[in-house]
Design a protein that fits this description.
With about 120 residues, the protein is mostly helical. Helix 2 crosses helix 3 and helix 3 packs across helix 4. It has a domain of about 70 residues. It has six helices and no strands.
Length: about 120
């Protein structure tokens, strides 16, 4: 998988490691801790995008958007491009209902990663 990611070159390996962590988080949130057969812990594109957002904010706080941009991730469609790179090379599975469009415009990055100031200056 690492070789494929390096050869593709759009996103760094660290971004895919982050994707994996968020996928685990999303699957646990949707399906709980119940054991399941491989491929039976499916999550939707929107569910994965939301987990990616939440995990980024949890890990990096106000720097979340900066970290993602450094990895060339600028929209939820970039998450979909990462997923479908792995799907198309049999590292991940999808259902017949899944589509790359499931990742299109799930949320606006500027709004999703807007950080409110810790304090306000009053004049």
């Amino acid at each position: 998988m690492a070789k494929l990611i390096r050869e593709d070159g759009r996103y760094p390996l660290e971004a895919f490691e982050f994707l994996h962590d968020a996928l685990e988080t999303a699957a646990q949130k949707v399906h709980g801790d119940a054991p399941a057969e491989p491929g039976q812990r499916h999550v939707s594109g929107a569910q994965l995008c939301n987990a990616l957002r939440d995990l980024a904010i949890q890990r990096w706080g106000p720097l979340a958007k900066t970290v993602l941009r450094r990895w060339r991730i600028r929209s939820t469609l970039d998450f979909g491009q990462m997923v479908y790179l792995l799907v198309n090379h049999d590292f991940m599975q999808k259902t017949p209902q899944d589509s790359l469009d499931d990742f299109r415009d799930v949320y606006d990055f500027d709004k999703a990663f807007r950080v409110k100031p810790a304090f306000e200056v009053k004049e």
